[in-house]
Every structure is written in structure tokens, then in C-alpha cells.
UniProtKB/TrEMBL annotation:
PANTHER family, A to Z: AFLATOXIN B1 ALDEHYDE REDUCTASE, ALDO-KETO REDUCTASE YAKC [NADP(+)]
Record-given protein name: Aldo/keto reductase
Protein source organism: Maritimibacter dapengensis
A Pfam entry, by short name: Aldo_ket_red
Entry keyword Magnesium: no
Domain NADP-dependent oxidoreductase: 16-302
Keyword Metal-binding: no
Amino acid sequence: MKTRRLGHSGLDVSAISLGCMSFAGFYGATDQDEAFATLDAAREAGITFLDTSDLYGQGLSETWIGAYQKDRKYRFQIATKGGIVAGAPRGTADNSEPYLREKLEASLDRLGVDHVELYYVHRREFSRPIEEVTETLLKFKQEGLIRAIGFSEISPASLRRAAQVGPIDAVQNEYSMWTRLPELGLIETCADIGATFVPFSPLGRGILGDTDLSPSNFKDTDFRKNNPRFIEPNYSANMKHVRELRDFAEARGWSTAAVAIAWTLQQGKHLVPIPGTRSADHLMEWADADEIIFSKADWAELGRIMPLGWAHGDRYSDAQIVGVERYC
């Protein structure tokens, strides 16, 4: 697995890293044994960097990572997030120093570590100046609790404001072949300020794979159940593009998921995608995506199959987008 530099931190992380939201059951039931098998597969593939949050399963994802590291006597590089108030109305955030400190310390305890490599503010508290929040994160860094600082789902303008206070190491926003919003300034801004851009959901929440999903069978707890892109007629319209992408991948001996991740990697050397899975088998389908290099003809064909704006439906429902900073 190739590596890439994490912002200004001096740390090198695996070019493809693992998102651990699925460990908490966002897309279906899972258990600790399955999570451990997935983490074993990640290590085998050369993945060194994990992404989690105190919100995922109300700490369950972090707890399982901590248990794995203790059981296997192995230490991953870890990014986690805080700032969303669990149990409050959706979109409620608290970015005050006391709240973030409490949540960070609880995350460290669950993970069984004295520091994490990267800590993100999961969602902005819009009434609190981002400059103040950045100062809080820099304080945590000075105290040795974190090695690098970041923000999730923020705008390019907010990022530039934060960068005036101190070095921002990473920004995590949704980005994939069907969610292209970060191309409207965020990826470029990250490059300008020396931050790593971390695309989450680079597999389009599972649609950019070799197996058809069954939205009619999604559990009520599945995030996609009420997501516009997985509701008809949008889902069928989107699958027409996905099936063409599958044909493209198959003709070249690649998995569709590997193509989707390679596509994100090749949008810039400062991108570190974090595909998520709870399955070791699924992980191995895309673990070698950093080895794929597209030709000019490949890029032209990908542009034809999935042109800008091809996805039918919003990336979030009105309820799901609450708390996300919009900039277009």
C-alpha cells in the first residue's frame, strides 16, 4: 500500500484508509468478530489509518477498535471525531472547549490510547466562530492529545478562516464519482493550505460496487432507507450509470469498487479516501486500488459514463443534511 502525507503533521498514512462507521450498524447488523476480521484484512492489505467517531454506535466503533488493538497488540493510526450532541435534535453541535475535551478524553479511553493521530470537529456549531474552535484544537495538539487537527463537512470559506489561526491538517467531506461538490473549491483550498482532503463514502454508500443493492429491503436503521438517491425513480436511473461502470471495470480486470476508489485517489496527491466496510471480503475487492492507473482513453470513457451531475437525487434528505455547512 502506498502512503500519503497527512497535512502538516509529518505523519504518513496509507493512501487508502478504512472508514469504521459500518462497525456501528449504519448499513446493517454486525458484530465484534466481523469487525476484528475486517481489521485483520486491513492490516494484511497495508492499511494503517482508521477513521471513526464517538457518534458511531454511541462509541461502539471506537470500543471495538480499542478492543482489537489490545487483543492483537497492534496500534493503528487513528482519526476520530467529536462535536455532535448525541440524543439532541439532529444537527445539534457543541464545539466549546469543555465539550470537545470531554468527548475527546472519552474517545481516548474507549480506544485505549493516550492520543490520536487526527481529531476532527464532526459538525460545526454555527454560532461559534471557527477561529475559536481552531484555537481549542491547537490547544489539544499542544497538550499531546492529538497529532493533527481537522474539520468535517465545512465550506472552503470556513476552511480558509480556520487556516488563518493555525495549520489545518485535514478536511473530511463526502466525495465520490456521484458526489462532486468538493470540486467547487474545497479540494483546491485544501491543496492551497497544505491540508489533506479525506473523501468519505467514495463508494457512494455501496452503490459503486459489483453487486446490486436492494433498497426495498433496507432496514429502518439503514441510513440509505430515506436517502433520495436510493428511492425510486432515482435509484433505477442511477443504476443505469453504475452498470456501465461495472462493464468498464470488468473489461479491464478491475472491480467496480477499485475503480471508484482509484478515481478519487487520482483527483490529487493530497487525497486519502476512507471507504467503509464491515466485511473483510469486500475490503479485499478494493484494497489494491492504489495500483490502478487510468489511461487518457480510460478517463474519457469514465467521463462519458459518469459526467458531472449524473446522479439523480440529492446526496442527503432534508432531515439528513441538517448540520452540514452548505456553500453552493
